[in-house]
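Continuing from the previous page...

OK, I double-checked the sequence for oxoglutarate dehydrogenase (succinyl-transferring) against my notes and this is the correct one:
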Amino acid sequence: MMRSFQQNSYLFGGNAPYVEELYEAYLDNPGSVPEKWRAYFDQMQLVPSSHGEVNERDVAHAPVVQSFAQRAKKGFIQPQVQSADLEVAKKQVHVQSIIAAYRFLGSRFADLDPLKRQERPEIPELDPAFYGLTEADMDITFSATNTYFGQDQMTLREIVKALRDTYCRSIGVEYMHINDPAQKRWIQERIEGSLGTASLTADQKLRILDRLTAAEGLERYLHTRYVGQKRFSLEGGESFIASIDEIIQRAGTEGIQEIVIGMAHRGRLNVLVNTLGKSPSQLFEEFEGKHADDLPAGDVKYHQGFSSDVSTPGGPVHLSLAFNPSHLEIVNPVVEGSVKARQERRGDKEGKQVLPVLVHGDAAFAGQGVIMETLNLVHTRGYGTGGTVHIVINNQIGFTTSDPRDSRSTLYCTDVVKMIEAPVFHVNGDDPEAVIFATQLALDFRMTFQQDIVIDIVCFRKLGHNEQDTPAVTQPLMYKKIAQHPGTRALYAERLAMQKVITADDAEKMIADFRAAMDSGKHSRDPVLTNYKSKFAVDWSPYLGKKWTDAADTSVPSAELRRLSERITSIPENFKLHPLVQKVVADRAAMGRGETPLDWGMGEHLAFASLVSSGYAVRITGQDCGRGTFTHRHAVLHHQGREKWNEGTYIPLENVAEGQGPFTVIDSVLSEEAVLGFEYGYSTAEPNALVIWEAQFGDFANGAQVVIDQFISSGEVKWGRASGLTMMLPHGYEGQGPEHSSARIERYLQLCAENNIQVCQPTTPAQIFHLLRRQMIRLFRKPLVIFTPKSLLRHKEAVSTLQDLSRGHFHTVIGETQEVDTAKIKRAVLCSGRVYYDLVASRRERNLKDVAIIRVEQLYPFPHKSLGAELRKYPNLTEVVWCQDEPQNQGPWFQIQHNILENLSEGQRLGYAGRPASASPAVGYYAKHNEQQKALLDAAFGKLKGFVITK
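Thanks. Re-ran it with the corrected sequence; updated structure tokens here:
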């Protein structure tokens, strides 16, 4: 009967998953499917053309499956198939359904919980009885050609056992959501070919036990030596240390030379000491309140980063653990940006040399939106890093008082990664060998497919969220189980003793040796290469320890400006521009020849062109930044013709000079937090690149406030991490409502201290030119926040000349530009930004001769010397007014009034002219906006009233 089935039964299509798997296998390798299935699929691909010949083509899966479904509905049966054979054929289809069910659902029945708190769920689809198969069918031989168990023919009993061993023991694999058949078959071959079991040597098992001993030993040592101090213990999740050790060692053999790790505080101290090789004695000093650096602020020990070089079988690997605040998961995009910079420095386009590893908590992985935002960058241009290995330390509890039922709405905490079709290996943390096997698969998959992958280590947390908590108060049942648990290391040591790999005495000696090493403040083994330095390492020393200075020669010779202008306005032959863009390019060419004044876009372009021509890299990203939200930039030109030309785009700034620095412009995904975090990370790894993030509107940067607060403004004083990141935030009150007016100048000024960041609001093309060049030419790196204009981009008075670029520099303060009699000036109106042009127009209308208008272009560090010099020009000055567009409780006023007062002379008065205090950044009614604008101009030139300070 079986022989008859093999010879005659085919084309029975009542089971769609089976048919689809066969067809996918056929597309990948026609020889991998039975002959008559192959013949049928071959026939389906032969399609007559309109001229009568036959063309071969691939067909989509859905029509194939549908055709078989229709055949089943119509009762289609080949005449030569006998009824007995048909019964076996039906059973064979059911067997394929069982195989598919285990691949889809086996993870739900896997033995994943070390605490075994709940019964494993019933999954009817995994039971042969669900398909009408009985005990009598268990010893019938069926085809197993679409599996990787090593046999073409197996009994149903053997098939079910192999499936259970593969998919339902200590590893639960989720991968059938992947659309790429090659990736699915790769996973099937690896896990089914090994029945989901690692093949480890005795030495490999001893290394696992060594890592578990170190992980547990450090936690217990700290728990007894520093009782009650916070350390966010890893106890219960020690297998993680074995996993990350395996990643590092195996990555080295795969050619990886750098690994950048991002993780929150759970287990961080363990990674610092047992993975990166931080000295235990240094850690002990931190517990005792000592510090070995001169940072102005510093940070707690479980936020610290670290770098080292370790030995692997494939050679040295540089490890970097990123500094991280207590904002869960926010370090993820920072790590990805740092990795991207390192990869580009090496020319590592596929991510074969630099690997990102991100470590997550289970509740944070499901709950934090930055996870989704970062995952959404994975396959986009300008952000891909060749795949990230994610490790989830799954404590099965979100916080000390959290009920797991309230931590997410998905089945698994890792379900968010299905959006990018990343596979997930759920693994029982009490089975370290299974953890190592899952780790090996994960790294190999990442290296093969350059795709993200997740290792979900299901474990527990022996202590509370921190060591001062008593979790049993809110989780009594869970912590009764935990109290009874002997520990992963003890279980594995017992397992190795039973296998005769070690003796019980050996296991105890490992513990004693580790504790002795801790007592001496040294490692039980030395993993660090102290004398190794990669040729790709960046020397930051020229940029560190420098005192603040505004001085920088940012001028560019006129001849070079003309050459650059010609290069950025030269368009390839037959490249057809849109008429509006054609006018922009033509206008820029005229500006470059000195025929017309320069606008903002030209000032930017010449800054970028001069930098890349000098060998610097420029990277600018953000929503619409290629064109510019307000269509002023046009760095990327789009071909309007029908014929294909270089994929339809041309970027003049990529073609400025031979051997120039790279120019990268990326229209980012609609994200602020992840993209800004990415660019910050990039900037911390590459001091020789002008890295710019541009907000669509400056207001939208508030979606990335964590990155601004925890990294950009404070990273240097907390961690010593320098960054030259530039943020461009369009800002200006033009009656566009509360979300399209204010970039929240006041928030950035509130963050300013210790010369940590630069806050500027330039008002001319020459100013943006010199400001951008200053950011790279000065030998120090500080974040730069630029409040860029909107209406000034095309304002007829907001222009500059080529001479302003060739002879000038960035002016922190711009004094009165009109011819005035200094002796007649009684009032000086200070301002910043676009309101300057409104003030000039209003003064002209009022025909005032006794008022000077002074622009403060750099709000921090405050330019005391320059402002003081301007004010002293007017001997009869009695009144100084600060005028701003923003409401009184917002904008610069409250943050800089004390700086202005320092520069006033005795008896001079300081007043405010601007919008009244408001809960909203701006009004939404245009008429109301105009009314307020008129009132603030009247106040600027009228009688001082309201808030007035006398020196």
